[in-house]
Write a structure and sequence with these properties.
The chain is of the alpha+beta class. Helix content is 27%, strand content 33%. The chain contains four helices and seven strands.
Length: 162
């Protein structure tokens, strides 16, 4: 099974919203828990694409099984949001593939740093970020959840002079 990563299209909206909810439910989370929400989904064009970020989806065949977005924080930093892999497709390297694709896209867009957050409930996500060189910035208790804030400095590809 190969993951094909492409840019989000409006026709993906219902599918990615369902993916978001399914992936959160798998780890016992729900939108509206004080940490996770889903009101940005109908506004992906505005929140991610039109302001210098991006939103990617990963497909196996014609099925969307992964996603992730980049939302500009400032000219140097983007927030990585909505990194999700459908539970039936986890543990196949798709989360790593999406994370690397989003990091590369952030570099292409001119960002030097990416930030994000996850919760202690999401052990696989924490492990993924750690393997990919992200570092923990801080933790915060939100209701019954512990939110872990993370970041990674991005290294642009070396420029070779001939």
């Amino acid at each position: 099974m190969k993951l094909k990563i492409r840019r989000y299209r409006w026709s993906d909206l219902d599918t990615i919203l369902a993916l978001h909810r399914i992936a959160l439910a798998k780890v016992g989370l729900v939108p509206g828990d004080g940490v996770y929400y889903d009101d940005d989904f109908p506004r992906i064009q505005e929140i991610y694409l039109a302001c210098g970020g991006d939103f990617l989806v990963g497909e196996v065949g014609s099925r969307v099984v992964a996603m992730g977005g980049l939302k500009p924080v400032d000219t140097d930093t983007a927030e990585m949001c909505r990194l999700r892999v459908h539970p039936e497709y986890q543990r196949r390297g798709f989360g790593s593939a999406m994370l690397v694709a989003l990091e590369r896209r952030a570099v292409e867009l001119g960002f030097h740093c990416v930030r994000g957050d996850t919760t202690l409930n999401q052990e696989a996500a924490l492990s993924l970020y750690e393997r990919q060189g992200w570092r923990e910035l801080s933790r915060e208790r939100v209701g019954d959840l512990t939110v872990v804030y993370i970041e990674k400095r991005l290294i642009p590809p070396a420029v070779l002079e001939l």
